[in-house]
Write a structure and sequence with these properties.
single chain, 252 residues, alpha/beta, Glutaconate Coenzyme A-transferase, 8-stranded mixed beta sheet, two-stranded antiparallel ribbon, 7 helices, disordered C terminus
Length: 252
Amino acid sequence: MTEYRSDEMMTVAAARELRDGQACFVGIGLPSRAANLARRLHAPNLVLIYESGTVDTRPAELPLSIGDGVLVDSALTVVSVPEIFNYWLQPGRIDVGFLSGAQLDRFANINTTVIGDYAEPDVRLPGSGGAPEIAASCREVVIVMRHRLRAFVERVDFVTSLGHGTGPGDRAALGLRGAGPVRVITDLGVLEPDPDTAELVLTRVHPGVPVEQVRAETAWDLAVAADLGETAAPSARELETLRALRTVGEGP
């Protein structure tokens, strides 16, 4: 079996979530790599929309060898940031949005604002950007982040982007269009909201990861699905394509 890193497993698992023909709102870094991996492998008609204003963004094809020159991205069109939100995001035209954060709680609420008290925080984070709108309006949201005890907390210090609030019915009560987070993909496994309680449940572990490790890195009493599955390991093709994407400057 080909060796791979935990971050590579996480990226491949995220890429597998995307389907051909979807409109996907992506950010830089791992979400971008996952989306471009999906397009190269199984979703050639995936429409990538970036907050910067590019629609149907298509990074140039991979070079035949390292050092073939600078690759230039292309896009169907470039529009203003307000148009991205007013035309694409808020009316519900985006099928799936990728999000991450500094903290995540049992109901998939995300914090990217402060750690500690808001008035006198221990750490002030970058803030919301477009994440609250993505969480509110995309038809579904996939959260991708490393699974660490300090990040998977009982309750986030600040709700920057609403997941499922305090439980079932919160999103509907607020009139939010999208279904909210449907999956949390980490470097240890996959969590999904329980259909009755909306609380995150461990539904899959990645190869070689024991349930005890996932629970040890989670601040709440993490429920485990009765039919717990195991993620398929990355194939040689998935890893080769992913590593080539990094070779041409899509991040470490």
